[in-house]
Specification:
Layout (H helix, E strand, L loop, with lengths): L1 E6 L12 H8 L4 E6 L12 E2 L9 E2 L1 H15 L4 E11 L2 H7 L4 E6 L7 H6 L3 E4 L9 H12 L32 E2 L2 E2 L9 H19 L6
Parallel strand pairs: 1-2, 1-6, 5-6, 5-7
Antiparallel strand pairs: 3-4, 8-9
The structure holds 6-chloroguanine (6GU).
Length: about 220
């Protein structure tokens, strides 16, 4: 999968994909992530990409031309994107099922907004999906883009070593994950639940299922409806 990102601050995206699972996905050729500076398509020598908003009011708006020229050039070079995503707090809230759907695409462009957002006409003309990562406001879309790319990248087939492990994540079956333990069997007076030491996979599975349900009931009852 190819993922391009358009950003006024691409430096924010330097580290998130250089470690651990995202690094492996790229090394295996399963994921190609490229962050592009919008300033490359600035309207003048000063690097201008934003301007005052019509109608007045505080906050700058990211202009049409830099974004349109950037998208046109990227699509002329790499082909049409399957999705052009704008990350914005007024978008539809991102959930595991959205990550699952995106993980099957061949190419995605993510536009990161800053300031008051981007000119509405770019949303009308180019954007195919508008995504928020939760009900709070970030200072820019870059961290949201990184969250989405991580959630999508790790479930691309072949990225995780243990193919089953993504299936037991919290949310894949609308249940939170059960508690996990490692050595030692006793730590500061707390013991690992004896069922996990029985070596009986049926009992272990039943216990995990019950714990997952219990956690979900107390922490996220909305998931059970
Ligand atoms: Cl996608 N962008 C910004 N700026 N803030 C957010 C967000 C996105 N999702 C939640 N808050």
């Amino acid at each position: 999968m190819r993922i391009d990102i358009l950003s006024a601050v691409p430096e924010l995206l330097n580290s998130p994909f250089e470690h651990s699972i995202m690094k492996r996905a790229q090394e295996r050729g399963l994921l190609n992530i490229q962050a592009h500076s919008l300033r490359k398509w600035a309207i003048n020598k000063h690097g201008q990409i934003d301007d005052y908003q019509y109608g007045g009011g505080a906050g700058m708006v990211m202009m049409c031309e830099p974004l349109a020229n950037a998208i046109d050039e990227l699509q002329a070079t790499h082909g049409k994107y399957d999705e052009i995503i704008f990350v914005t707090p007024d978008g539809k809230r991102f959930e595991q099922k959205d990550a699952n759907t995106l993980s099957l695409k061949n190419s995605i462009l993510i536009i990161c907004g800053h300031y008051k957002g981007i000119d509405q006409r770019i949303r009308d003309l180019y954007v195919t999906s508008e995504i928020s990562i939760g009900d709070y406001v970030l200072s820019g879309g870059e961290l949201a883009a990184a969250v989405i790319i991580d959630a999508v990248g790790r479930i691309i087939p072949g990225v995780l070593n243990d193919e089953t492990s993504a299936l037991t994540d919290s949310f894949q079956d609308n249940l939170l994950a059960p508690p996990v333990y490692s050595r030692p069997a006793a730590f500061r007076g707390l013991e690992v639940p004896p069922v996990l030491l029985t070596g009986d996979p049926k009992k272990v599975d039943a216990w995990r299922q019950e714990q997952a349900l219990e956690r979900t009931k107390t922490r996220r009852p909305d998931l059970l409806k």
